[in-house]
Each structure stands twice: as C-alpha cells, then as structure tokens.
Automatic annotation (TrEMBL):
Organism: Monodelphis domestica
Subcellular location: Membrane
Signal peptide (from-to): 1-26
Domain Ig-like residue range list: 37-160, 206-285
Statement: the UniProt record of this protein carries the keyword Signal: yes
SUPFAM superfamilies linked: Immunoglobulin
Chief location bin: membrane
Record-annotated membrane-spanning stretches: 313-339
SMART domains in UniProt: IG (SM00409), IGv (SM00406)
GO CC term (a single one): membrane
Name assigned to this protein: Myelin-oligodendrocyte glycoprotein-like
Superkingdom to which the source organism belongs: Eukaryota
Amino acid sequence: MEIVSSSGSFLSSFLIFLLLEKHTLASGRSIYFSLAPKGLSSGLSVEQFSVIGPTEPIRAWVGRTADLPCYLSPQKNAQSMKVIWFQSLEIVHHYEDGQDKFDNQSPKFQGRTELVKDAISRGNVTLRIWNITAADKGHYKCHFDDGLYQEEAGIELLVSGIMEIVSSSGSFLSSLLIIHLLETHTLASEQFSVIGPTERIRAWVGRTADLPCYLSPQKNAQAMKVIWFQSLEIVHHYEDGQDKFDDQSPKFQGRTELVKDAITRGNVTLRIWNITASDQGHYKCHFDDGLYQEEAGFELFVSGEGTEQQIHWWSIVIDIFIDLLILTVIIFAILFLLYAGTYTGEGGGGA
C-alpha cells in the first residue's frame, strides 16, 4: 500500500507539475503572441501581401482626369479592407467597410475623387481624380489594411498644362518652355532614401525605446519636416526647426522626444518613454524637404506585463481546454490510484 501511495503521490505530483509547467508555458506563449507583428499570433499564419503601383511617374494635364492604379500581390479580395490614398499627409480618398468615407477627406480633393472598384475583388483599385490642378502634383500613397496586416505603395503624379502667366500675345512655344523649366527644376531636386532598422525592435513595458532612422545620402534635415507615425496616428512631429505637439496622438503625449544630435547628417531617433503594450506595432519615419519626401517602416515588439491583453480570444479557449484536459487526467489518475489502493488492501486482508 505504501508503494502504491508513494507511486500515487509521485504520479500526482508529476501531473500537478505538468499543470504548473503548462501555465508557465502558456504565459510564455501569451508573450509570444504579443511579440508577433500587429495582427499576427502564434500558430496562425496571417496572409501577407504587397501593394504594387506604377513604376514610372504618372503624367496628367490641368483640367483633365488622372487615374492612379494599384493592386495587391498576390491577388486578394479587398472589398472588406480599408483602402486610403494620401498625398503627403492629406487624405485624398478613404474606403472602409465597403463604402467611401468623406468625413476626413482633404478639402482640396472634395467632390473630385472616385475609387474605381470594378476589380476590387481581385485586389485591384484605381484612384480617379477629376479636374486636375497644379496643386495635385506630388507624391501619393496607396495604403491597404485588412485588419491583420497593412502595406502601401508610392506613386508620383506630374501635372502639365499651359501656364496662364503667358500673355495672349505670347507664343505657344514660350509657354511650353516655361513648363519645361518648371518641371526640370522639380525633377532636379535632390532625392534621398530613408533607412530604418532592418530587424524588429524589442522594448519592455515601463522602459524606454529608441527608434532610429537616417537619410542616404547624408543630408542636413534641420529644415525638413520629420513625422513619425504608428499606423495612421502621429507619434511625433518636427517641422520648421521645432517639435510640434498640436496634432500628436493623445496616447503618446508627454512620452516622446526626437533626438537631434546628428540631425545635420540626416540622422534622427524617436525616443518613447514609459512603453506600454499598445505601443507595439508598425511605425513609419517620414522625411519631407518640400520638394521630395520618403519614408521607412519597421516593427516595434513589446514584452512584459500587460502584453497578454493583446492575445486573441482563441488562445484563451485553448488555455482553458488544456487546463480542463490536464485536470481530467489528474482526476482519473487519482480515482485509479484510490481504486488500486482499495483493491490491494482487500487482497492483503483475504490472505
């Protein structure tokens, strides 16, 4: 009986150990879930995609219509996705929940845009802009977000037209020369790339995270506009040589600093204090010198207490199921040991 009891105690202790170990692993798994890119979780493969736009600048004419196409690769139904077109930081067109939304559209584009959705079920959309003006010229971004993953592509729009500064007696040739000179000046502006971390950045709840990015080739960025985004929220805004907090997202207020020690070489770092679980996600570092703009994106992972709040409901169901399974095994093991002990006792008494 003592052997059975000892065996039972050992088996019960072992099963209880498994239960405790499972909780430890579950805790680790919870953190692991939170460390996946926004919308990703362990055990499930989120279908990623690329956004493809025209490889060459699109040319449009004042007073005419311009079509700016982009599509998903691989093909994927985008009817239920969020699709937003930007020019610089202005919203040109916003599509979400299966319909166009105009509440946050830039005033200069109101009444002049349409999202052509004939092939949206294959992930192919086109932004159509009517009555093109000179102000429409610039860099556009086509942004797709399916709730689990987001990506975007950039497109340049060039605008041409007969300049009204030429008098009625001026020649057609002189007007074309003026247009050519203006376009040459714009195209000759010094372009640059924005380089961010190639690996995901890990931070811990309650601590500080540094998110660096820099220009290539080196270029003085003191007079540039530098804006950091998390998704569509402004994390930090630097312009005209100073930090601006009027449009900063409330959740980042009082927690950010742009480290400018090397800004004359085009190198800046976004510092975020008192990291929280909600700081995890995709960030973009955006530079704009007034003639050209570019950005880089990367992921911030957050570990520590509180990150378990980001676990999907199905992981909780799995935890409960495993708990119940282990408890069931323990109960059956205990019942078996009790039955075996009773049977052994009765056998000894009969002898």
